């Protein structure tokens, strides 16, 4: 199946330098494959519009154990952390965010709710230039003051939603987000390879420089790619986690099983249903552009800017994890065709297996 993600090993400009695919149904992991390179380039040459290839002995092959920068898949973990508080009764899903963060006047004055933050219907902008602020105080002031730029209620994907949700959760619990994720999700599930950076053995991402990027940081490996998450110290509600395909398979299997994995329980079945019911809380539902033929009956998942994606299909008890470093050696126009192709191949394999049983 790994060849379905755009032949990650072939050509001068493959879709990704390296890729890992893990797929399964129920408790069974049916596919676990890796291809290409976790580290292939030393830099990006803008004059040649090409990566500067490392000598082959200096490259690092991608394996099924390679951690990748998850980018926006981090949002799913922040969403689960929020729903855990909803399940405990400490957070109201339709409560106003301003009730928890009264000094965040941008959302408080407009009555933005927790549900609107989780469903990207707050009207807040897609992002803020936190990476250009001088210090944490200026970054926090910008986040506090930002009002919606459109009417609440309409869908508008926004990293700011999850940054505000992080602030809310940290205020509510008195614990930082990385601790909430570790203690509430990854440690109980035995996901030892999933953590906020630094992550020295991770797949490389981008030779991050202006003008194509928003900061001048050079070739990145083991530190978060997202510029705002980097500016915030690597722990952010919208980006910052690193993980492996095997760990994310556990996360998927847990949600498909109603919130439990072995003896561990991170959510009750009713709250998993709340998380995944359209339009989804943090999760996106039935998005064919990256879910292919898995979409249509309540499949839920997300993509990440670095080349990652995750899809759960409760209707068939199926999951697909795709980790890739499509931004190595530099970012390009988004292309989810390989993601959709891999999901479609899995959907057809499940249908064929079901037909054989009949």
How would you describe what is shown here?
The structure is a single chain. This protein is an alpha+beta fold. It has two domains: 2-68 and 180-357, DD-peptidase/beta-lactamase superfamily (Beta-lactamase, 3-Layer(aba) Sandwich), CATH 3.40.710.10; 78-174, Methane Monooxygenase Hydroxylase, Chain G, domain 1, CATH 1.20.58.710. Helices cover 32% and strands 20% of the residues. The chain contains twelve helices and 16 strands. It has a seven-stranded antiparallel sheet, with helices on both faces. Strands 6-10-7 form a three-stranded antiparallel sheet. β1 (18-25) and β2 form a beta hairpin. α1 packs across α10. The longest helix is centred in the last third of the chain and has 21 residues, at 337-357. The model is unreliable at 6-11 (pLDDT under 50).
Question: Can I get a quick summary?
Answer:
It contains twelve helices and 16 strands. It has 358 residues and is an alpha+beta fold. A seven-stranded antiparallel beta sheet has the order 5-2-1-16-15-14-13, with helices on both faces.
């Amino acid at each position: 199946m790994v060849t379905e993600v755009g032949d990650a090993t072939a050509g001068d400009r493959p879709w990704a330098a390296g890729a890992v695919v893990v797929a399964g149904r129920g408790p069974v992991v049916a596919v676990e494959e890796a291809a290409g390179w976790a580290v292939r380039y030393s830099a990006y040459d803008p004059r040649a519009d090409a990566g500067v290839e490392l000598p082959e002995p200096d490259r690092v092959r991608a394996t099924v154990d390679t951690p990748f920068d998850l980018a926006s898949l981090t949002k799913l973990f922040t969403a689960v952390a929020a729903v855990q508080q909803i399940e405990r009764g400490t957070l109201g899903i339709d409560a106003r965010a301003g009730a928890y963060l009264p000094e965040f006047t941008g959302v408080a004055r407009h009555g933005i709710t927790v549900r609107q933050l989780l469903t990207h219907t707050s009207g807040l902008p897609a992002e803020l230039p936190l990476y250009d602020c001088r210090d944490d105080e200026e970054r926090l002031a910008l986040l506090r003051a930002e009002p919606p730029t459109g009417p609440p209620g309409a869908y508008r994907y926004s990293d700011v939603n999850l940054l505000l949700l992080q602030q809310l959760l940290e205020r509510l619990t008195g614990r930082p987000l990385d601790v909430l994720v570790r203690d509430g999700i990854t440690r109980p599930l035995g996901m030892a390879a999933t953590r906020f950076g630094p992550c020295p053995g991770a797949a490389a991402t981008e030779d991050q420089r202006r003008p194509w990027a928003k900061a001048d940081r050079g070739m990145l490996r083991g530190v978060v790619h997202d510029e705002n998450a980097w500016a915030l110290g690597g722990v952010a509600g919208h980006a910052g986690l690193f993980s492996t395909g095997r760990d994310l398979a556990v996360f998927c299997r847990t949600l498909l099983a109603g919130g439990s994995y072995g003896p561990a329980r991170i959510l009750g079945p009713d709250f998993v249903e709340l998380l995944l019911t359209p339009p989804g809380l943090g999760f996106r539902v039935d998005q064919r552009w990256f879910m292919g033929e898995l979409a249509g009956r309540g499949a839920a998942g997300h993509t990440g800017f670095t080349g990652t994606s995750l899809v759960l299909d409760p209707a068939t008890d199926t999951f697909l994890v795709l980790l890739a470093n499509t931004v190595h050696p530099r970012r390009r126009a988004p292309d989810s065709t390989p993601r959709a192709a891999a999901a479609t191949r899995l959907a057809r394999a499940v249908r064929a297996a079901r037909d054989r049983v009949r």
